[in-house]
Design a protein that fits this description.
The chain is an alpha/beta fold and 275 residues long. Helix content is 37%, strand content 16%. It has a 6-stranded parallel sheet with strand order 5-4-3-9-10-11, with helices on both faces. It has a 3-stranded antiparallel sheet with strand order 7-6-8. Strands 1-2 form a two-stranded parallel sheet. Helix 5 (85-91) packs across helix 11 and helix 8 packs parallel to helix 9 (207-217). The longest helix has 15 residues, at 52-66.
């Protein structure tokens, strides 16, 4: 994507990429949500097909929306709630419960009227979070681990989610929240997990993410890890071989769930079919 024509979806770049090629196979699920020259250009010019990984990603992730085994629980984390409002709304059409952790949880806590100190918040998304909370199927942390800076050596505090003081920021869900989330996961038949519960890369803030990882892998439920940081976490904890599917695309997996299709998939159906 350092080539300007790639991100601008240049027809000329697509032609130049295809000149020495007889056929095109898209195996890059993690890039298929981008309408870039190397993704959507070749299928319009060459006999093309989906690779086996791409087919598997579509089969698993679209199945979460069309026919999940119930109860269906989604665990969502990460930094920005704005990145996931659309997918939360879509998941609520199928999910029994959505568990929210990570930095995005603090906009939900603000929507509940709680002080959040110096935690990450998106003020313009508070009303949307209120609407989601009103469904009664979105759960947020009840306690959080705090620090004044993101550091492996920073002093930490554990407080109730309704009482985060100024000067402190939430960097992980607390043990009571982790236990609550684990109990909900224990009752699920299908679990989708996308996004960590905190700054799991640093030991003081890894416990919440580890608890979710253990809960997801301790069950007989269908378990799907939606790529990105949650895939990195499950691998860091050595548990990737205990889940049914670890997606290769964080953003792509969310967009497929939200939109039901991706530019890279749609163009394969519309273009020439490889024999």
């Amino acid at each position: 994507r350092f080539e300007r024509g790639e991100t601008e979806n240049s027809p000329a770049l697509a032609v130049s990429l295809c000149e020495p090629v007889d056929a095109y196979v898209n195996e890059a699920f993690g890039a298929s949500h981008r309408e870039h020259a190397s993704i959507v250009g070749p299928p319009r010019l060459l006999p093309s097909a989906a690779g086996r990984l791409l087919e598997r990603e579509y089969e698993v992730l679209s199945g979460l929306i069309t026919a999940p085994r119930k109860p269906f629980v989604a665990v969502l984390g990460g930094a920005k709630v704005s990145d996931k409002l659309g997918v939360i709304s879509k998941l609520l059409e199928r999910c029994d419960t959505i568990l929210v952790g990570g930095a995005m949880a603090f906009t939900f806590l603000a929507a509940q009227g709680h002080p959040i100190g110096d935690s990450l918040v998106e003020p313009d998304r508070i009303d949307a979070c209120k609407e989601l909370l009103a469904t009664g199927r979105v759960q947020v942390p009840v306690d959080v681990v705090l620090a004044q800076k993101i550091s492996a050596t920073a002093p930490t505090r554990l407080v109730g989610a309704a009482g985060i003081p100024d000067g402190w920021k939430g960097l992980d869900i607390g043990p009571e929240s982790a236990a609550n989330f684990s109990d909900v996961i224990a009752g699920a038949s299908t679990v989708l997990w996308n996004g960590p519960m905190g700054v799991f890369e640093l030991a003081p803030f890894a416990s919440g993410t580890r608890a979710v990882a253990d809960a997801v892998t301790d069950r007989g439920a269908v378990s799907v890890i939606g790529g990105g940081d949650s895939a990195a976490a499950i691998r860091q904890f050595g548990l990737a071989d205990r889940v049914d599917h670890v997606s290769t695309g964080g953003g792509a997996s969310l967009e497929l769930i939200e939109q039901g299709d991706l530019p890279g998939l749609a163009v394969l159906r519309e273009g020439k079919v490889a024999s």
